[in-house]
Amino acid sequence: MKKVTTLLVALFVATLFVGKANNATAQDNVVKINPAGAIIGNLSLAYERVLNDKSTVQLGLSYLSKTYKTDFGFGLGSYETKYSGFGITPEYRYYLTNDSKDVPRGFYAGAFARYFTFKAETIWDDATITGSEVTYTTVGGGISLGHQWLFGDVFALDLGIGPWFRSVSSDVDSDGDDDTEPDFSFANDGVGFRFVFALGVAF
């Protein structure tokens, strides 16, 4: 999976250099965050770069870190569930705008790939109860339709939605023995929806 991530980043960087020579717009860059994700501990940052008067490329990075505590009460004990992980989402966007709107604003159609992995670790306050650890890895890609506004040529609002096909593999360590090999694994393929909600700054 590390090779997949490295390849996606390399392709994105190469595209930036190819498109830079053809770029002639005022706002070449947009840096965005997902405020909704931050509430649940998923910090998402996206960088969009203009290639020409109709298209852009974007690289999204996310980092997940959140701990939930569950207390059963009545002397039944409690446990913590710790979530941690990261993701990468490269995307190409084609803006369906007229000549009066400069990219990166207006309606767009995009194609994206996504790699995301995170770990869920359960730790009991009672040392006699064995915890567990599950690692989820998601690889996939899809399309998106959306609209990006630039207010005062500075502040950006990006809204979008689109289907994507994803393959999810899960490795389970049910006895918490920290072995290099999981106790068992399973996979699940399917179609989901990606929702885009981001606020940012253009420059």
What does this structure look like?
- By secondary structure, the chain is mostly beta strands.
- 12% of the residues lie in helices and 62% in strands.
- The protein is built from 2 helices and 8 strands, in the order H-E-H-E-E-E-E-E-E-E.
Tell me the strand order in the biggest sheet: 1-2-3-4-5-6-7-8
Q: Give me the number of helical elements.
A: 2
Total E-strand runs? 8
Overall radius of gyration? 20 Å
Distance between the termini: 33 Å
The biggest beta sheet is recorded as: 8 strands, antiparallel, barrel
Please tell me what the overall shape is.
Answer: elongated
What share of the residues does DSSP label as strand, in percent?
A: over 45%
List low-pLDDT spans. 1-5, 14-25
Structure classification: mainly beta
Helix-strand pattern, N to C? HEHEEEEEEE
- What's the multimeric state? single chain
**Mean pLDDT score, rounded?**
85
Helix content: 10-25%
